[in-house]
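lol forgot to send this yesterday, sorry. struct tokens for the thing we talked abt
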């Protein structure tokens, strides 16, 4: 468990470093002051923790696209449906933004998301586990006209599934016609 946590932290640190390097190679002007960024991030936290659709309208462009291990939303309407779906599966949601960097129109955040699984998983195919999860992730978000226009959110999905009690089983060995294992 400790090794997985160390690997997850190293993966997050490497992803932040790569994202900062990529965005640092460009030199656009900042689009928010430090105070505006703090307020913007506070509203993001409120949107997730309270699943407040009104804040989604305030924070996201109509064509906001979000990609993550949980799936892709292609516009604000789909994203608001995603937020409602998250609330139906998870309770006690708590998003914390641990670090945030703004470079031009790119906002890079390292965050922790905790929640308890109280609803059906995998589009209703698996029962709720009742287990608490803590997920560390990174989002790279493009800001356009003061709102989020697209976001890539990444986290260790294997770790989050293991926290829910799922296991990873190796594939079964294939046999040949003679019964030999390959």
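and heres what i got for the seq, position by position
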């Amino acid at each position: 468990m400790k090794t997985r946590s160390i690997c997850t932290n190293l993966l997050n640190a490497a992803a932040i470093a790569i994202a900062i390097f990529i965005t640092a190679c460009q030199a656009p002007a900042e689009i928010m002051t430090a105070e505006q960024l703090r307020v913007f991030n506070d509203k993001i936290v409120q949107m997730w923790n309270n699943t407040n659709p009104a804040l989604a309208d305030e924070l996201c462009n109509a064509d906001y696209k979000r990609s993550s291990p949980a799936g892709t939303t292609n516009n604000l309407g789909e994203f608001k449906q995603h937020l409602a779906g998250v609330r139906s599966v998870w309770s006690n949601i708590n998003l914390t933004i641990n670090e945030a960097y703004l470079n031009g129109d790119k906002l890079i955040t390292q965050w922790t998301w905790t929640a308890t699984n109280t609803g059906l998983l995998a589009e209703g195919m698996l029962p709720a586990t009742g287990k608490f999860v803590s997920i560390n992730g990174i989002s790279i978000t493009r800001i356009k006209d003061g709102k989020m226009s697209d976001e890539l959110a990444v986290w260790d999905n294997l770790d989050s599934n293991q926290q829910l009690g799922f296991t990873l089983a190796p594939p079964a060995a294939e046999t040949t016609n003679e019964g030999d294992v390959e």
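Residues 2-163 form a domain with the Nuclear Transport Factor 2; Chain: A, fold (CATH 3.10.450.50). anyway ping me if u want another try
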